[in-house]
Amino acid sequence: MDFTIDKYKELLVALKNSGLAFRLRHDVDRLPQNSLRTARIETQLNLKATYFFRVVPESYDEEIIKEIHSLGHEIGYHYESLTTCNGDVDAAYQDFCTNLEKLRQMVPVDSICMHGSPRSPWDSKDIWKKYDYRQLGIVYEPYLDTDFSKTLYLTDTGRRWDGYHVSVRDKVPFFQEKWESEGLSFHTTDDIIEQLQDRASILNKSGYTILMTTHPQRWNSFGMQYIKEFCLQSIKNNVKRFLIKRK
Fold this sequence. Notes:
By secondary structure, the protein is α/β, with parallel strands linked by helices. It has one domain: TIM Barrel (Alpha-Beta Barrel), CATH 3.20.20. The chain contains 10 helices and 6 strands. It has helices at about 5-20, 30-45, 60-70, 80-85, 90-105, 140-145, 175-180, 190-195, 200-205, 225-245, and strands at about 20-30, 50-55, 75-80, 110-115, 150-155, 210-215. Strands 4-3-2-1-6-5 form a 6-stranded parallel sheet. Helix 3 (about 60-70) links the parallel strand 2 and strand 3 (about 75-80). It starts with a helix and ends with a helix. The mean pLDDT is about 95.
């Protein structure tokens, strides 16, 4: 079974033992208690990650944010201001600043990451066509500050590792096709683990640093939450396919 919490532990161990350089990023879209669970597992394995929290009720939990930070992980802001402000860039910037300050009242925050909002016509990264997040003390936005010529981006968007086919925004144009042509496209977690464990694999020989994004709400022990997530994501993937075709 894929996307269980045990499978996530297995993936972390394989990453740690591979000898490859990697960064762990988590988008906390909802179910923040799942993020606390993965954060504790990573701490047990002496790994550090960045947790990007949305400032909405289904993600934002002050006690969990502070506890994850206390475990040694980094907290970032998962912003979606252009969507929540209906495309008004100036209002979106003010909303962004307000939410950033709200997070900073609890923990240090110097990294941000756009939330995809697949049903929205607006891409929140477009705020930075007018404004400069560096003037706010932000040093890193993964979509804008990663050298993808040297970095392989792996994300579990769509509850699969080749979900860029059904993703509206959680993908890297041009490079996604390049990685696929190089044999660096994976469907299941086991596909990645097998590559990591094989010293002669394409992945081990690629020379890429890995930037791995997971959504902790997707990783559950088998039970009602596991089944619910599986069913909901299947529906969402069909909606995303429809939205992509419309574009």
